[in-house]
């Protein structure tokens, strides 16, 4: 059932190109200029009445939500807040009938996420679920459901579910933008064209897995490391850090690159690995200056960078991994893949049970 792969996690990482295609399938018009989410029952008037969005989820699904916030705010221009589900209800959030609450859950059974959904409904908000499991509790109780077509995810560490959730957010963002008129059809067509290229681009990253295996084997000898990035790169950094912790048991922290000098820089010492994401053109100079800060203190830096920027970045980092060029908003769907592979190979190098890490369950059905 692992289809020739040593672990479910690796199989699921390699299934991502298919998961992207399947999640997009049937949801984009033939001319590629419009997104059709027929599963969303909201009328155009109801969509226009949305004043704010809350995205609520746990773990990796929350990290998809962090990217989702940027996607929805930039495409639909609706303010978005994100909360981890175990915190949401207890901060007495301001949930009004003009709030759209989006819950994200691979399994659709996570107790805290389900409780957040119920609280949102109790307050009169409309709830949209992004889930991978048809018939799950979340899918049954939400008002609208976008099913990610990732297929069953067995490994405890979520990979293809996360990236499919990103695809769902892109589709939703474009759908809302079209309805609200915040983006024109030429722009939508441009994003759709770039989305169609993602599966092949992921394949080309997977072709370079041996390079990442080597990186991971070196990292696996360390007990502490950092992930840094700005904007959506910071959101991906958080996911990369969680993935690594979860299965390799190596301690890591994800930091907004500009925050380092407000405290964490004190932890940087000779030889400490820093993985830096540098995919956002407009933030690129800023992140480079943060890389120089850690380099000056002896860090060993791996830059995950867009093709075409290697020349500039090469001077400032110790190692480079290039990802194919895409639109800035779409880059998380590519940049997370090397981080998944690094986590996988680091776990393997440490002799851990990759698919069933200690202390963790695939689906957390207790609060
Ligand atoms: O099934 P869900 O998406 O609701 O699960 C949420 C988290 O428990 C899950 O993403 C967890 O963080 C993963 N093990 C991370 O790889």
From TrEMBL:
Top enzyme class: transferase
Protein localization: Cytoplasm
Record-annotated SIS domain positions: 43-182, 215-357
Catalyzed reactions per annotation: D-fructose 6-phosphate + L-glutamine = D-glucosamine 6-phosphate + L-glutamate
Keyword Cytoplasm: yes
EC identifiers of the protein: 2.6.1.16
Complex and partners: Homodimer.
Protein name, entry field: Glutamine--fructose-6-phosphate aminotransferase [isomerizing]
Lineage: Bacteria, Bacillati, Bacillota, Bacilli, Bacillales
Complete-protein stretch covered: 244 to 610 of 610
């Amino acid at each position: 059932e692992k289809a020739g792969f040593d672990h479910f996690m690796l199989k699921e990482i390699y299934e991502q190109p298919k998961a992207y295609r399947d999640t997009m399938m049937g949801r984009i018009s033939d001319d590629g200029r419009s997104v059709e989410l027929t599963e969303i029952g909201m009328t155009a008037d109801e969509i226009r009445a949305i004043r704010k969005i809350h995205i609520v989820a746990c773990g990796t699904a929350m990290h998809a939500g962090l990217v989702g916030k940027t996607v929805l705010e930039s495409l639909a221009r609706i303010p978005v807040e994100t909360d981890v589900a175990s915190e949401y209800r207890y901060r007495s959030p301001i949930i009004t009938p003009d709030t759209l609450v989006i819950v994200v859950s691979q399994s659709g059974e996570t107790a805290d996420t389900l409780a957040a959904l119920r609280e949102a409904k109790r307050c009169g908000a409309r709830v949209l679920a992004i889930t991978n499991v048809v018939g799950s509790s979340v899918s049954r109780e939400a008002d609208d459901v976008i099913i990610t077509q990732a297929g069953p995810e067995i490994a405890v560490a979520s990979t293809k579910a996360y990236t499919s959730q990103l695809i769902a957010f892109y589709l939703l963002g474009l759908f809302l933008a079209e309805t609200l008129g915040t983006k024109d059809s030429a722009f939508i067509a441009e994003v759709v064209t770039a989305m169609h290229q993602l599966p092949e681009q992921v394949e080309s990253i997977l072709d370079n897995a041996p390079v990442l295996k080597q990186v991971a084997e070196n990292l696996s000898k360390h007990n502490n490391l950092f992930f840094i990035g700005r904007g959506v790169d910071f959101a991906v950094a958080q996911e990369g850090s969680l993935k690594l912790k979860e299965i390799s048991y190596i301690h890591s922290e994800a930091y907004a690159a500009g925050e380092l000098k407000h405290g964490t820089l004190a932890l940087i010492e000779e030889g400490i690995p820093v993985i830096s994401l540098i995919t956002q053109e407009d933030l690129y100079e800023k992140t480079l200056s943060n890389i120089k800060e850690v380099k000056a203190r002896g860090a060993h830096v791996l830059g995950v960078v867009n093709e075409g920027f290697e020349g500039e970045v090469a001077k400032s980092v110790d190692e480079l991994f290039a990802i194919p060029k895409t639109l800035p908003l779409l880059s998380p769907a590519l940049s997370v893949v090397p981080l998944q592979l690094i986590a996988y190979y680091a776990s393997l190098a440490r002799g851990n049970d990759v698919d069933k890490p200690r202390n963790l369950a695939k689906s957390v059905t207790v609060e």
